[in-house]
Specification:
Blueprint (H helix, E strand, L loop, with lengths): L1 H47 L1 H46 L2 H7 L6
Helix pairs in contact: 1-2, 2-3
Keywords: Membrane, Transmembrane, Transmembrane helix
Length: 110
């Protein structure tokens, strides 16, 4: 019986792990494009301002990088969490094993 329970849990968690990996890849790809665009915007500032421009440009680039990372990662993580919770509930309901999900899913997610 324990093997059946473990198999059911694996069937529930496998799509979740695949979905998380795909979400991370999309997030990193979006961040890479955002950083490329920000670098293209910041390069003229760096070249135009000399040493002061380089210092200001680096500070600006770091601030933009931090903001872009927060803006891109937080909503995607929340969306992935919400979708994975819904997917887990649907799979557990389909297999008739919502009791297992309630036991193994942390209360914050459930």
């Amino acid at each position: 019986m324990a093997q059946v329970r473990d198999l059911n849990l694996q069937l529930i968690y496998l799509p979740l792990s695949i979905q998380r990996q795909q979400q991370k890849e999309r997030s990193l790809r979006a961040l890479a494009f955002a950083m490329l665009g920000l670098a293209a915007i910041s390069l003229p500032i760096l070249l135009w301002g000399g040493l002061n421009g380089i210092a200001y440009g680096l500070v600006l680039l770091m601030a933009i990088y931090s903001g872009a990372w927060l803006l891109l990662s937080m909503p995607l993580d929340l969306l992935a969490l919400w979708r994975s919770k819904r997917a887990l509930r649907a799979l557990a309901r389909e297999f008739g094993r919502e009791d297992l999900l309630d036991q193994h899913l942390p209360k914050q997610l459930g």
